[in-house]
Write a structure and sequence with these properties.
Blueprint lengths: L2 E7 L5 H12 L4 E3 L8 E8 L7 H4 L3 E9 L1 E3 L8 E4 L6 H11 L1 E5 L8 E2 L2 E2 H6 L9 E15 L2 E8 L5 H11 L4 E11 L2 E2 L15 E2 H4 L5 E3 L2 H8 L4 E2 L9 E4 L5 E9 L2 E7 L1
Parallel strand pairs: 3-12, 15-17
Antiparallel strand pairs: 1-3, 1-14, 2-3, 4-11, 4-12, 5-6, 7-10, 8-9, 10-11, 12-13, 16-19, 17-18, 18-19
Helix pairs in contact: 3-5
Length: about 280
Amino acid sequence: MDGFLLINKPKGWTSHDVVHKVQKKLNVEKIGHTGTLDPFASGLLILCLGKATKLASLFSNLDKVYEGTIVFDKHYDTYDTTGKITNEKETIIDIQSLQEAILSLNGTYEQIPPMYSAIKVDGRKLYEMARKGIEIERESRSVTIYDFHMTRMIDHNRFDFYASVSKGTYIRSLAVDLAQKLETYGALDALRRISVGKYDVANSKSIEDVSEGDLISLDSYFESYPTLSLNDYMVRLVRNGVYLDERQTKTKEPFIVLDEKGEKIAYYEVIGENQYKPVLIF
């Protein structure tokens, strides 16, 4: 089983829980996920199976869409309401001010990730330090908010939202940043991942319902990729992991190497000008 599965992760499960359950259900040896979804969140989690475990980065680099709920007046160490409250402030948020603050976050800005994240600093994951009560300065990262808007005002300090964002965006940080613009505290109260790139949660399966028949095969995934046909001599080298260069092709896009019969041999990515690295041998 080499390919990808679209799973509708339930709230309360870790991404590792999902991987373990699907691995046991489908009796597959190699399996992983393509981007952690917090335990309190639900929605689309893409799993990679077999040889496809080498391709997780193809999904982590994609844009994502979320729906959720943000609540004001309290700051949590995790930036969501599952954490410990560290500050409180009573405010009444009027809709106009809220909408203006939301609008101001649309576009590209420098976002500081939360301590409770899997980012590594000096070889240590931030959340491991956070659990020990250690907080360190984090480098900001440039993220792009394509579409962030309110979908429903629940009460004076809680609302539902829609957010279409670039890779690397933390929605928990977005909630905290929004609250700061309103001179109060804020946190994420609910989150659901709707899509990753072109893949939508509407096409996903629950852990109970998923089967081998739901697998997105490597042939299907790569069907629209550019191809490069090579002779038998070069194909033997490709199978042994040789890097390619301008003697074979000149391109800025990843591609599939085919043999003279049109069979897929390997997937290559660009690592420099006219330099190409094999990522997966079929």
